[in-house]
Amino acid sequence: MQGHLIYGQEKAQTDLLNFYQSGHLPHAILMLGKEGSGGLALAIAFAQFLLCEQKGALLETCGQCAACLKTKALVHPDLHFTFPSFPPKPGVKTNSRNFITEFREFFARHPYGSVADWLESIGAKDRQSGNISAEECKEMIETLGLKAMEGAYKIQIVWRPEYLGKEGNILLKLIEEPPSNTIFLLVAEQTDSVLETILSRTQLVRLQPMTNEAIQEVLKRIYQVPEQEAAQAAVLAEGNVAHALTILQENESDWLQLIKDWFNGVFTFNGNLVGKWVDQASKLSTVQLKNFLMYAQQLLGHTLRMSMIPGYQAALSAADAQFVSRLAARQFHYQTINEMDRLIGAAVYHVERNANTKVVLLHLSVAMQYALKGTKLSA
Ligand SMILES: [Zn+2]
Per the domain annotation, does 2 fall within a domain? Predict the structure, then answer.
């Protein structure tokens, strides 16, 4: 698996290695881990190891043989994929085959993507519209009944067996007594929604919850997110790489404008603008609002460093960096910025405890105006 390709999943990789080395590789493995912890990436990496023509002893793949190259591009003829989808047009049945090109592109771009991300990328109205059909299960039986084309194994990856529903029962016999050298890799997030009959026929491999460090590594090395942003998003991600990326996108799109509107009202002591901003910001969910306020703290931190450290380069998007340099040009006293940071931190505390957000945000904005004048608003 080329070293730590699957960051933070060393335990699961050891489990898989032990199965392989025991000489009794189970023919159905259920990889269980919460969203954004790398289940699909782990299944594909393990498939690459099984198919690699020059593999090492410790789950290492050569990365260069024909099998590795085909597996990485998800085009190996002995590697089959089933995932939630929907009918692409009326009269066409739900089948992963209809979306395999999109799936390859999606995985290349977003290997930690959630099913919601996936379904959205192919134009689903909502995540409920995803399904794995009975027809597809029947087709799977036919495909896996054929001889392996090139590899020593035929591998069927089922991404999210939760979407199988009762159709999954069609597969029971196949999972229990598969044709020789056929391996099922099922990637699930919760066992409650997987058919009991399927669960009882699989060997469970549990993924670990992702640590902040592992998320940061994935963001930096796989998604090329700059260090600072990766660190910030990892803290807010709740163990979910897909969620970290959503946070980063939200930052990019809406938050900068929202923070500009806010500071504009606060710095000009314009009660009207502040009032409008409070109305707008209080529409965010509690989690979003908390993330937004922490993002504001992050930008203030960069502002402080930029005004105190000559030549300081903030690892931020171009738009954020421009905003920070304009703030730094206002030459705030460092105590003013520290006080604003403390006030925002206190607001995060109250938001987390479900205080009335409008009251919290209004109080915060007024307290920040007092801080700008160098005085304190008594609580
Ligand atoms: Zn190889």
Answer: no
